[in-house]
Amino acid sequence: MRRRLDRKLVKLPYRRLLELAREQARKEGKAAPAEGSNVYVYEERGFALRCSPGNAHAYILDYRHGGRRRVATLARVEDLDLDDARQRAGAWRDQLRRGIDPAGEIAKKKAAPTVADLWARVEAEHLPGRSASTRRMYRDLFGRYIVPAIGDRRIEDVRRADVAAILAGLAARGKTVTRRHVNAVLSKSFKLAKLWGMLDESAPLPTAGQELPAPRRPGQALSDPQLAAIGRALDAEPAGSVAAVAFKVALLCGARLGEVCRRFKWDGLEHGGRVVRVQGKTGERRCYLGRPAAELIAALPRRGPWIFPGRKSGRPLQDVRALWDRLKARVELPAGHELPATFRAYDASRHTFVSACARLRIEEGRRQLLSGHKLPKGAHWSYYHLGPADLLPDADLVAEALARGLRGESFMPTAEGGQGADVIAFPARA
Q1: Residue 37 carries which DSSP code?
Q2: Distance CA 118, CA 153 (A)
Q3: Can you give the residue range of the structural domain that contains 13?
Q4: In CATH, what number is assigned to the domain containing residue 298?
Q5: Number of domain units in the chain
Q6: pLDDT tens per residue across span 295-333
Q7: pTM
Q8: Do the Cβ atoms of 290 and 334 come closer than 8 Å?
Q9: Residue 316, by phi and psi: left (phi above 0), alpha (psi -120 to 50) or beta?
């Protein structure tokens, strides 16, 4: 049926529109619309009203594109004024003249991947190659903060303001570190979206330019007086304290406290108890035990598979937090040498070990291997192959120096040329 649309006509019920359509068909000698079929009231150039038997009224545009006829819905009548519907139809016709299919573009947008879709792919394809702690962090951040906020948003529609709103909410709750982590995880995920073709390569990253607090320089190391004070506090621990021995071993070998507590196993010992094979953050690696650390482990009784068993049978020691709190409360230091409130057990062990390596002039590549870090990238480092025979003398040197420091003795080994000489006499290598 063809006639000029008006605001009364577009609200007529289906039965009345069907009668008008049949009446016009009889006058024009055309086939009348069948009962139960949609009624179309065309105005001009494909713009029309469609009414279904269920009284659903909608504005449509009937057009051809690429040799195909399409009938696309502009809007429901209750959602759009008649004049606005005419303007939208005109805008669509302008797109058609430029070779763009407006309904096709809308369909593409509806099918475009959302942030939730991106997270599903990141979890399935990116995370399996990451460490367990990284996988936990991604799942926690996406599950608690990102997906609830913008999970249903199309990737291409996410703007800087959307990310800024998430970060502002975290700032209001005092989650400074989480803000940086959320922004970093989103940045990586959107870069992967570009790599996977889910986002146009020229699209700006919504995480770029976000205002984030400057990260503090992480970590600190024990000074010589602090190291001696920690040694005295450790000596005050009860005999047989598993946590105290675990902390000492972590300090003397540079392994992460979590690795020492939860991943050091008796069946992982190699090379006469001088090397421990552990599953680290980025895969299996070896921890090299200087003689003082190896002797501490050798003196322990075997009570299950873990070198440092926990209180619960069949479980490893979980952490040394309670021990560290006791040590900090127990240490007595002169003014100017107090332990800061932010000083962590991780600082007192791993950071102190690596700093000791530097003080003893252990070469960079050896420091990396002793502490379990990856070697730097570059052709030079690809030829760098050292084993236990090369690294254990260095591990001995560092562990013995730290053991002396814990006893309150001189940290540095005896140097050739007398006290204060610049050249240190390193032990002969095997």
Answers
A1: S
A2: 11
A3: 9-108
A4: 1.10.443.10
A5: 3
A6: 999 999 998 999 999 988 889 999 999 999 999 999 888
A7: 0.61
A8: no
A9: beta
